[in-house]
Automatic annotation (TrEMBL):
The lineage of its organism: Bacteria, Pseudomonadati, Pseudomonadota, Gammaproteobacteria, Pseudomonadales. It comes from Halopseudomonas formosensis. This is Uncharacterized protein.
Length: 348
């Protein structure tokens, strides 16, 4: 326990491993895991004195309690991970970094990553990435964390729960633009992220508007009129089953489905002939917003969008490519800050 002399003792049903004074016990409860966690911290953290030691000890208890609470909620089977020396090292890494700074945002991210790490029993790529993320995340400030999360949410995800303009606008405002104030900060932030290994600044650039218009194509469809729909229905009456009111004008129509591939799948399920399907997609694509119209629409619905696009243009954000570690950290930050809930294994 914190405050006791550094010793390593083996009781009943325990095995001692001499690796940075790690103790491995078997058949553990949460109380036992907490005791081990604090012993690991006390046995390996820097020798401090006075108020600094008291502060570090208290922070170690706080982060350990937070981790165990989230572990019990999200992965109770993960208690057995405390038998693994590599996991104990990851746990100590979390305690050490939080004890040094006491930053709540960083603590939340580290705990989120550590809970995910408790699920990885084998030395998989995901386990390696999570271990490395616990080392790299403390080297980033809040601005850099927000830049990573903003890039991840707009360029590395496609939200399947977006079904209309309202859900799209909510996504853009609450999962992307909530992080966007950081994008226009000093360019040295991007260089630092590249230096610590969570991103690279590539020569080519990413067109954010084109990315959105491709990923969420249905949102940017202006719709076609009843006469155009009638021409399709003459050739294939069942085409009505895959056409919906336009998302912006209920007097117009568009194909159901967020993009061409989804439209094809819907048509196949409804036994729409290929020729009719292709004509529907062509008609849909003929009635898409221009980039200028899309920009005006987004600016009208998302107050931060205009400044965000200006910051993207004048920064290295458009050139940013995340590494596996950058994705893991951005994923954890997004989960903590905006409730993003997809499994990290989708990307790694």
């Amino acid at each position: 326990m914190i405050g006791s002399r550094k010793t390593q003792k083996g009781g009943d049903h325990s095995v001692n491993v001499q690796a940075e004074q790690v103790t491995v016990n078997t058949g553990l409860s949460i109380a036992h895991v907490k005791e081990i966690a604090l012993e690991v911290f006390e046995g390996n953290f820097y020798k401090l004195a006075g108020v600094a030691k008291e502060t570090a000890d208290e922070r170690a208890r706080q982060i350990t309690d937070q981790f165990l609470q989230e572990l019990a909620e999200k992965n109770p089977e993960g208690l057995k991970a405390s038998e693994d020396p590599d996991f104990q090292h990851s746990l100590f890494q979390t305690q050490k970094e939080y004890a040094r700074c006491g930053d709540k945002e960083l603590g939340d991210i580290l705990v989120d990553i550590l809970v995910d790490r408790s699920k990885e029993e084998q030395r998989s790529l995901l386990q390696i990435v999570l271990n490395e993320s616990l080392t790299i995340a403390p080297k980033l400030n809040s601005i850099q964390l927000d830049i990573l999360a903003c890039c991840f949410n707009i360029a590395y995800t496609k939200r399947l729960d977006i079904v209309n303009s309202k859900t799209f606008e909510d996504y853009l405002n609450n999962a992307v633009l909530v992080f966007a104030d950081a994008v226009g900060e000093k360019d040295s932030n991007y260089k630092h992220m590249e230096y610590v290994g969570c991103a690279s600044i590539r020569a080519g650039s990413r067109d954010i508007l084109k990315t959105l218009m491709k990923q969420y194509k249905a949102i940017f469809c202006k719709g076609f009129d009843r006469e155009a729909l009638g021409e399709l229905v003459k050739e294939c009456p069942s085409i009505r089953s895959v056409v919906i009111p336009n998302l912006h004008n209920v007097n117009l129509f568009q194909a159901g489905g967020m993009d061409d591939e989804v439209i094809k799948n819907i048509c196949a399920k409804n036994s729409i002939p290929e020729e009719a399907m292709n004509k529907l997609i062509q008609l849909n694509n003929k009635n898409m917003m221009s980039q200028q119209e899309a920009t005006e629409y987004l600016q009208s619905k998302c107050p931060k969008f205009e400044k965000f696009m200006a910051d993207v243009k004048n920064s290295s954000f458009k050139n940013l490519e995340l590494t596996s570690v950058g994705i893991a950290i951005a994923h954890a930050h997004s989960r903590k800050k905006v409730g993003f809930d997809a499994d990290l294994s989708i990307w790694i």
